[in-house]
Write a structure and sequence with these properties.
- By secondary structure, this protein is mainly beta.
- It folds into four domains: about 90 residues, Phosphorylase Kinase, domain 1 (2-Layer Sandwich); about 180 residues, Transferase(Phosphotransferase) domain 1 (Transferase(Phosphotransferase), domain 1), CATH 1.10.510.10; about 130 residues, no CATH class; about 270 residues, TolB, C-terminal domain (Neuraminidase, 6 Propeller).
- It is about 15% helix and about 40% strand.
- It is built from ten helices and 65 strands.
- A six-stranded antiparallel sheet has the order 1-2-3-4-6-5, covered by helices on one side. Strands 15, 16, 17, 18 and 19 form a five-stranded antiparallel sheet that branches. Strands 58, 59, 60, 61 and 62 form a five-stranded antiparallel sheet that branches.
- Helix 3 packs antiparallel against helix 5 and helix 3 runs antiparallel to helix 8.
- The longest helix is centred in the N-terminal third of the chain and has 20 residues.
- It starts with 8 loop residues before the first strand and ends in a 12-residue tail after the last strand.
- About 10% of the residues have low confidence.
Length: about 850
């Protein structure tokens, strides 16, 4: 029974509803009235609050959680009276049985969480499915470190290290933990270390794989007896995970797996045994790989057509070239199968450069396509002979057999593309909608009147259907309008909604005469029959693969016409890192995550980031020193944060246009400078008098200046004024520290270069970069300017500034910045110009892509629920 009712206040927190209860008290959903966010409150009962020992445990839980900062561990925000304020995790409690791939994915994330805790000498002590949540995005969150304690084996007399604590108002001698998940030493009441968590981890993994508990009994005593004496039946555990489970279940801690990091190594080996072959290995395994690859080119292309009922399914993985990785960010979803299933095109990142590669699937080698630097979003022509892709705000095309890429048209930030059979290309542009253009090149024209999909600018990710219709995804102007639509190229005003969804969908021609729509539910890729004649889905969805990455609403998957599926299991997370002027790493900031545009405050102490949320993104704030993020906006349409000079307000792009919001949570969001065109802010002058923003007008962006009042509001009597752009594009404007100059990027020379001009009236710009440049930022005192070169080198230019003139030195390369997605700044300069915050992928094993041959045969394995 809940102790608190809805509407009750604990400090600034208003109780909304009870969530559950546990050994540490009641848990509630609550509203943080200051920051306007929902949180979880763990509240001790009033009687327990009078118990010093109980309160000691409560205080210890707060300290333990506060020291943990990991994406797979629920965060703590603070303490209020007798309540612990925690991250509210929406999702479902972990349950089994699960598909092998899903279980192993969750097991890796749980291991990551435990490893982070164990590195701080923290033991969970009560790991179990009830303390593990799975978010809709497939992210594991380990909850309730309330039974954890800081392991101090050198002091066994310390009650904090004892598994038995006296609880005066319940019963004495209660063993901390849950019987079915306790290690033998924990069940005996002995001192424990991190190997107790490894035992519990094995139990959780066993339950995920089998749906059963390995140690059961009619009573708690019987269950503990089973833990101490019986050996579980491991025949029910898939062979790929059996070794790991067995190592976790060693009753003697000395023989048990010693470190959870070793579990991660065993998990990496598990998929290999599941008939997945990794390229580059030797001996008989390499021979097996060649047989599989040969099957793709022969059996997959011809055998399927001869025998549609073939039930054989093969899986193998494509590795990136040595020393490189696949580019899988939200703005460079870089892979696509050719329609005939003979080739895979993918974007590879190496040494700060991205290029397009093509690999025949009946071979072991791939080749780079020259002239495709900066490529993203490749898609094939219907005859599988040409590839289109985006680079530098342009849509380009290249023939696979050879030749030089050529520009089809200006595209802005591409959001998917598809070829028609009559030689046209349909493509989406971020915040501008769908366009069509001749595949041979020309001026694009918009596809208008999309009817029920709502705002035209929110339509994206088109894909042609064989009957002249095309699919597209729309966020919709209203939540009920979001989903996947089908429309005719000739009659786009009459769309049909196929599916209410949070992501794109894929049309998949069936090799057995049926047609399918592939879409995501959480991280699970589902297939459902599609009746093309009536444009509607039929039957029930079936599971195809899990987990499959969701890249800001884009399915990280591609299909061919002959039963091949290519997909990525996850998006590599990136790490904020401080580096010096030589590129030497100084310190990591926060945990690895996937984020968009970010900005340091003027004092360099706080960071505003853009992170995926639902169909769009929201802003998060972070104290740079502590590295702990907190959510700032909740509209799923917010990005491009800019700090006010005093650091008290954030200016950002929202679904309403441009918006202002105080960071203390006491004010309300103030929409300003409304326009039909897409706008996003780029800077706020140090004197507080002006804001710079980009506006997408036609094919090229323009840079505008908006006057502001001393209290940080738009000036009522002064309208925004265009500062640069028009005939040529202008982007990423930044004020000099004295607010007398503006540095920005323009393509008037035919490529992106960095310029400086006077402000507020431009009197004659000076070109700063000499071989291309973007994302300019000022050093201290107007004496230096930084920018990123086309090959991702952070470059510095010294400046001699006069009363009305500016003279740049020759550019000097400092270091290579990590390659990031289009539209995301690759660095932020500290106020002193001696350190830089960069955002790149941590060193880790390169992400592989998975190919499934004859994926329709998987549909017999059951309906997705």
């Amino acid at each position: 029974m809940a102790l608190l009712t809805a509407g009750t206040r604990l400090g600034p927190y208003e109780i909304l509803a009870p969530i559950g209860s546990g050994g540490m008290g009641e848990v509630y959903r609550a509203l943080d009235t200051k920051l306007k966010r929902e949180v979880a409150l763990k509240v001790l009962p009033e009687a327990f609050a009078q118990d010093p020992e109980r309160m000691l445990r409560f205080q210890r839980e707060a300290e333990v959680l506060a020291s943990l900062n990991h994406s797979n561990i629920a965060h703590i925000y603070g303490i209020e009276e007798r309540a612990l304020i925690m991250e509210l995790v929406d999702g479902e409690t972990l349950r089994g049985p699960l598909p092998l791939e899903t279980a192993l994915n969750y097991a890796r994330q749980i291991a990551d969480a435990l490893e982070a805790a164990h590195e701080k000498n923290i033991i969970h002590r009560d790991l179990k499915p009830a303390n593990i949540m799975i978010t809709p995005a497939g992210v594991v969150k380990v909850l309730d470190f309330g039974l954890a304690s800081v392991a101090q084996s050198s002091d066994p007399s310390n009650s904090a290290n004892s598994p038995t604590l006296t609880i005066s108002l319940t019963r004495a001698g209660m063993i901390l933990g849950t019987a079915g998940y306790m290690s033998p030493e924990q069940a005996r009441g002995k001192a424990v270390d991190k190997r107790a968590d490894i035992w519990a981890y094995g139990v959780v993994l066993y339950e995920m794989l089998t749906g059963k508990q390995p140690f059961e009994g009619a009573t708690i005593s019987d269950t503990l007896a089973a833990v101490l004496k019986t050996e579980p039946d491991l025949k029910q555990v898939p062979a790929q995970a059996r070794t790991l489970v067995r190592r976790c279940f060693e009753k003697d801690p000395k023989r048990r797996l010693r470190d959870i990091g070793d579990a991660k190594l065993l998990l990496e080996e598990a998929p290999i045994a599941q008939s997945r072959s990794r390229l580059g290995i030797g001996g008989w395994a390499a021979t097996a790989v060649m047989l599989v690859l040969g099957a793709v080119g022969g059996w997959a292309v011809s055998r399927f057509r001869q025998s549609p009922t073939d039930e054989r399914v093969l899986r193998f993985q494509i590795e990136p070239p040595d020393g490189a990785e696949f580019s899988l960010g939200a703005n460079s979803a870089g892979f696509a199968l050719s329609p005939d299933g003979k080739n895979a095109a993918y974007v590879v990142s190496s040494n700060g450069k991205t290029q397009l590669w093509v690999r025949p699937l009946d071979a072991t080698t791939a080749r780079v396509i020259p002239g495709t630097e900066g490529a993203g979003y490749p898609f094939w022509s219907p005859d599988s002979t040409s590839i289109s892709f985006a680079t530098g705000g342009k849509l380009q095309r290249v023939d696979v057999s050879g030749g030089v890429p050529f520009t089809i048209c200006d595209s802005g930030v591409l959001r998917g593309g598809t070829w028609t059979n009559d030689g046209r290309i349909l493509f989406g542009v971020s915040e501008r909608g769908l366009f069509q253009v001749p595949a041979s090149g020309g001026m694009p024209s918009p596809l208008k009147a999309l009817g029920a999909s709502g705002n035209l600018a929110l339509a994206r990710w088109p894909q042609m259907l064989p009957d002249g219709h095309y699919l597209y995804f729309s966020r919709g102007d209203k939540p009920e309008n979001a989903g996947v639509y089908a429309a005719s190229v000739d009659k786009p005003s009459e769309p049909v909604k196929l599916l209410s969804a949070q992501t794109t969908a894929l049309y998949a021609p069936g090799v057995n005469g049926k047609q399918y729509l592939l879409w995501l539910r959480g991280t699970t890729l589902l297939a459902q029959e599609l009746d093309l004649s009536r444009l509607q889905l039929e039957g029930e969805p079936h599971t195809v693969a899990d987990p499959v990455a969701n890249l800001f609403g884009l399915i990280a998957a591609s299909v061919s016409s002959n039963g091949l599926l290519l997909y990525s299991a996850a998006t590599p997370l990136k790490q904020f890192t401080w580096v010096d002027r030589a590129g030497k790493k100084l310190a990591a900031v926060g945990e690895p995550l996937d984020t968009g545009p970010y900005r340091l405050s003027a004092d360099g102490r706080r960071l505003a980031t853009t992170r995926a949320s639902g169909l769009g993104a929201d802003l998060w704030l972070m104290d740079v020193e502590r590295g702990v993020p907190s959510r700032f906006t909740f509209d799923s349409g917010d990005a491009y944060p800019v700090w006010s000079p005093d650091g008290r307000t954030i200016l950002y792009r929202s679904a309403k246009g441009l918006s202002l919001q105080p960071i203390n949570g006491t004010g309300v969001e103030l929409p300003l400078a409304q326009s039909r065109n897409v706008r996003f802010p780029t800077d706020w002058s140090r004197d507080g008098r002006f804001v710079l923003f980009d506006e997408l007008i036609g094919p090229r962006p323009e840079l505008w200046a908006m006057p502001m009042t001393p209290d940080g509001k738009p000036a009522a009597n002064d309208k925004p004024k265009r500062y640069a752009g028009g005939q040529f594009g202008a982007l990423w404007g930044r004020f000099s520290p004295d607010s007398r100059w503006v540095a920005y990027e323009s393509d008037e020379s035919g490529r992106a270069e960095v310029y400086i001009d006077s402000f507020p009236e431009p009197h004659g710009k000076v070109q700063i970069s000499t071989s291309g440049g973007t994302f300019p930022q000022w050093g201290p005192g107007d004496r230096e300017l930084f920018y990123a070169s086309p090959d991702n080198k952070l470059t510095a230019v010294s400046l001699k500034v006069g009363a009305d003139s500016i003279k740049p030195s020759a550019p000097s390369e400092l270091f290579a910045v990590p390659s990031v997605d289009v539209g995301i700044n690759p660095y932020e300069a500290a106020p002193d110009g001696q350190r830089f915050l960069v955002f790149g992928t941590p060193r880790q094993a390169p992400q592989a892509l998975t190919v499934i041959v004859n994926w329709p045969a998987l549909l017999k394995n059951g309906i997705a629920r």
